[in-house]
Design brief:
245 residues, mainly beta, ten-stranded parallel sheet
Length: 245
Amino acid sequence: MTLTGVNTYTGTTTVSAGTFALTGVGALASTDIDISNGGTLQTDGSALADGSDIDIAAGGTLDIDGSENLGATSTLDLNGAGALVDIAAGQTLSVGTITTADGSTVTINAGATLAGLGNTINNGGVMNVADTGSVTDAGAINNLVTGVYNFAGAATFDSDSDNAGAEQITNDGQINLNGNNTQIVNIGPNGNNDLLNQNAGQVELLSNLVFEACRSCGDLVGVCSFNSVFERDACDDFGQVIKAA
């Protein structure tokens, strides 16, 4: 189904076992959106209402082909195995609070951004971030025990993006920095944030690359498992590296 105009229906929108595409000026007034069971919601920009609550269950997919800003009160929940979000190259998905469960996947293509506007990104699934992609949040970013971030190249990974509270990035899962050349990962480019590696959390550098670490970042606490060259002297406004190995 393709919607090319504005739909004023305000009840729950359910997408199941099919594709619902919002194109042109197509837009939903509904703020309660459920996607599941092979269903795909596809938008090409400014089609979703402010304050939307999007629930993606097992087998559901949200395709963001144009930038969407859902406002600080909105939520995005990926709560089932096989739940997917794909943000097209150069586009931005901005949501208040973002929660992903084990078995879910978010793909952030080249130059794309997943932006949390409210309090927190809680990642328990897999986030694949392409070269020049970004993951940011106005509050904290928590990578849970089952959470995995795969950075394929230069990227921005930033909590407290509004520079208002010094919220940390905490890692109980896995952060993988992949690439075959010089890689720059900007962690907390506002200069006041820390990456806190705790419990069984790991940050790994994979392949043969020179890791220029972070530019304008806070402390890296408990960061370990560096499997290639680590260069700190290329960084600006850098905090500390504690327990790096």
